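Case study 2.
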Amino acid sequence: MVDDSADGSREDGGSWNGRFFEDFRVGDRYQHRLGRTILPTDNSWFTQLTLNTNPIHFDHVYAAQTEFGRPLVNSAFTIALVTGMSVSDVSQNAMANLGWDEVRLPAPVFEGDTLYADSVVLSARPSASRPNVGIVHIRTRGFNQDGVVVIEFRRTMMIYRRGAGPHRRRPQPR
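Prediction:
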């Protein structure tokens, strides 16, 4: 487990602003702080917003006739949510995502499940073409309230080096 107060990881009066490329070490594991309960509205709206017409995600009568007996959460929502959970720890200072690989969905996600996530750093190297960033490769797992892993994937990102990214400027109240 990595201490979020590692030297140099905080700016602007001590508020957490994420890790920079220099802060990543192979083997570091981050337990992402926030969990999130998935509501029926989340599943229905995301499914319809993305034009997914499979009724297993939004038609409770249809879903009741399946082997699951209830709606499945849209897997694209699951990957988006678990990725979002990891941002403050791994990609707050990303210049770009380069890819998601080896996405696995070993167990179903249902409305009402609460998801949590963790990530481990697999590799970190300077970019060969962009001196202002490094390439970080992580493995992230999402698991439900019972500890059952429901999604796992590898993600590759370009992360700004300390001092090389856009400056965060927060206005102060007058």
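The beta strands are 10-11, 15-16, 29-31, 36-37, 94-104, 114-126, 133-143, 149-160.
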